[in-house]
Amino acid sequence: MDIRVGDILKMKKEHPCGSREMLVLRIGADFKLRCTGCGHEFMTPRAKCEKKIRSVIREADE
Q1: Domain range summary for the chain, segments of one domain joined by +
Q2: Which residues, in sequence order, are CB contacts of 5 under 8 Å at separation 6+?
Q3: Any long-range contacts for 25-33 (C-beta under 8 Å, 24+ apart)?
Q4: Do residues 9 and 22 lie in contact, with contact meaning Cβ atoms separated by under 8 Å?
Q5: Tell me: the pLDDT tens digits for 28-56?
């Protein structure tokens, strides 16, 4: 799955604050994500995170 820093991931399940969108801050074996609703930052294993992604929202490259 092609995920880049700066992408917004729309997840299958909601974060406890109610938002489904997460901003990608770091990629590698783990992803560092920031909830767009409450701003909470957390790290999660790549394999676990890729299963929970519904879609990737990417800004158009200029």
Answers
A1: 8-57
A2: 24, 25, 26, 27
A3: 27/3, 31/3, 33/9
A4: yes
A5: 999 999 999 999 999 999 999 999 999 99
